[in-house]
Every structure is written in structure tokens, then in C-alpha cells.
Amino acid sequence: MINKDLESLIFDFLSAVETSLQLLEDKFGSRSLHQLWHEKKIAQRGEIFKGVSYQLHGNGCMIEYPEHCVDFDFGPNGRTDGFDAWRLYNYACEFPEKYAKYTNLAAVESALNQYIQEDIIKKIDNSTSNLYFFTQPKNAN
């Protein structure tokens, strides 16, 4: 069963990730940020432009905008369309007026568990990633 509120949260989160990655790619010429960091071509943290900064961590990146933050992890093979309960919960807390239901981590976990049971989302086999991905391509409508 489709959960329009959950999908709105997921698609808005993924859209914010894509927007953030585009800013980083425009600045650094690549989306392979961890590779650039490990090769010491970029700093672990810095400013993208005035008022917007980034911080690389573990498998991911946090972008701090003046009004909100977007924190995401890279998936296997550099995928950027993954999500987990913690990241969706954090994103929902940035916009409590829009995602009040999901400003509770247990509510996000419960909704994702329903999608797992219905095989709408799943983790990638043989991967150490904790991220979930849609099992079928979805359009953000």
C-alpha cells in the first residue's frame, strides 16, 4: 500500500540530496567527493559558497544551508538514491511543519518496515550499506 506522506518525505529528501550534490559537483568538478578528500584534493569540510557549507563524514556528507541541513550517505558504487530511517527522520525534523508525523524516529522506522515487508524498498544484497533503495524505479509525482 502506497504511503503518500512517506513517499513525499523520501522524494523531498532525495531531491535535496541531488540539489546538494549538484552544488558540490559545480564547485569541485566531481561527485566522487570521498575520493577527492582522500586524495587531499578537497578539505573534509568547507564552504561551497557564502552561507552554504559541507562536511564529509564516514560514507556521507552533510550540507548546511542557512535554513536547514541535508545529511546523506553514498550507497554502493556511488549511488545517491538511498535512504534510511535516521536520515529521513533528521530531514523531517528540519521541516516539522511539513513532516510532523515523521519527527518521531519510531514512526519513520515503522513506515519503512511496512515498505520492506511489501518489497517496495530493500537493502542491496552483499553490501555493507545500511541504506534502502526502491525495488522498482519511482517517479517523484
Blueprint (SSEs and pairs):
Blueprint: H1 4-28, H2 33-38, E1 45-49, E2 52-57, E3 60-64, E4 69-73, H3 85-94, H4 105-117, E5 121-122, E6 133-134
Antiparallel strand pairs: 1-2, 2-3, 3-4, 5-6
Summarize the structure.
The chain has 141 residues and is of the alpha+beta class. It has helices at residues 4-28, 33-38, 85-94, 105-117; strands spanning 45-49, 52-57, 60-64, 69-73, 121-122, 133-134. The protein has a four-stranded antiparallel beta sheet with strand order 1-2-3-4. A two-stranded antiparallel ribbon has the order 5-6.
What would you say this structure looks like, in words?
With 141 residues, the protein is an alpha+beta fold. The chain is built from four helices and six strands. A four-stranded antiparallel beta sheet has the order 1-2-3-4. Helix 3 packs across helix 4.
How many distinct helices? 4
The main sheet comes to: 4 strands, antiparallel
Relative strand content? 15-25%
Broad shape = globular
Strand order, sheet with most strands? 1-2-3-4
Task: Kindly report how far apart the N and C termini lie.
Answer: 16 Å
Count the beta strands: 6
Radius of gyration computed on alpha carbons? 15 Å
Proportion in helices: 25-40%
Structural class: alpha+beta
Mean pLDDT over the full residue set: 93
Question: What number of domains?
Answer: 1
**SSE order, as H and E?**
HHEEEEHHEE
Low-confidence stretches: none
Descriptive tags:
141 residues; alpha+beta; four-stranded antiparallel β-sheet; two-stranded antiparallel ribbon; globular
